[in-house]
Write a structure and sequence with these properties.
Belongs to the peptidase A24 family. The protein has one domain. It is 79% helix and 0% strand. It is built from six helices and no strands. The model has no long low-confidence stretch (mean pLDDT 89).
């Protein structure tokens, strides 16, 4: 099996599949369960150990902790989002993780804007977004699906993401 196919298989089974389960749970219940996030973290550690790129994954882990740890402390993301981000950082490294977050943030923003525009509430939502006002539960956008989408985009569009 060539290296690219092996990476795709490892990423698909070890990272994307459990992340997608978590994303689906986030859409349905607003919670990403540990049974979806912990396999991403553990498989990322094993993958890093087996490939000799654990240090790069740990740098990605720290990048995720810096970004999402602060957001979790401020109440901007939940614990499931934080744990999913930590696992994605292990898999993607710091640069791949930052690309994933950029894709996730943009796609979540566009989804939220489209949802509010359909309800004719875009002006109020944009004002709250621009001023950093707290978001009520009914206005919250589940971020797990967008993190999952961003991770997939980062993996597929960045050659050597898993160990660059």
């Amino acid at each position: 099996m060539d290296g690219g196919l092996r990476e795709l298989l490892c990423f698909g089974v070890g990272c994307f599949l459990p992340a997608a389960v978590g994303a689906y749970a986030d859409l349905k219940s607003g919670v990403i369960p540990d049974k979806a996030t912990l396999p991403v973290i553990l498989a990322g550690l094993v993958y890093g150990l087996c490939t000799g790129h654990l240090w790069w994954g740990l740098v990605g882990f720290l990048a995720a902790l810096a970004l999402f740890g602060g957001a979790a402390l401020a109440g901007g993301v939940g614990g499931g989002d934080l744990k999913l981000a930590l696992g994605l950082g292990l898999w993607l490294g710091p640069f791949g993780f930052l690309w994933a977050v950029a894709v996730a943030g943009l796609s979540a923003f566009l989804y939220g804007a489209a949802r509010k525009a359909r309800k004719k509430e875009l002006r109020l939502w944009a004002w709250r977004f621009a001023t950093g006002a707290p978001v009520a539960g009914s206005e919250a956008v589940p971020f797990g699906p967008f993190l999952c989408l961003g991770a997939l985009a980062s993996f597929l569009l960045s050659p050597g993401t898993l160990h660059s």
